[in-house]
Write a structure and sequence with these properties.
The N and C termini lie far apart (26 Å). The protein is 0% helix and 39% strand. The protein is mainly β.
Amino acid sequence: MQTVRTWIGGVNELWSDRLNWLPAGVPTGADLIVIEGSLSETQMPIMDIDFALTTGTIDIGPIKSTLKVAEGRTFTNQGTANVKGDF
């Protein structure tokens, strides 16, 4: 079953901290992952672990929405990445 996980951690916080996600928990490669900023709030996680998106989706919104992959970490995309912001 696919879980929708929305980033609530703000700017430059760690992807691997389960409390930065709603509902709490680090996403799996099968989840629907949402990173959605607004005019008043930036959402910018740092992917600090190796991560493989398998059957899931990452949705990065168009306003103040960014995903950074930390140096030395690997992001593998076998799912769907809908990027309107920065990656």
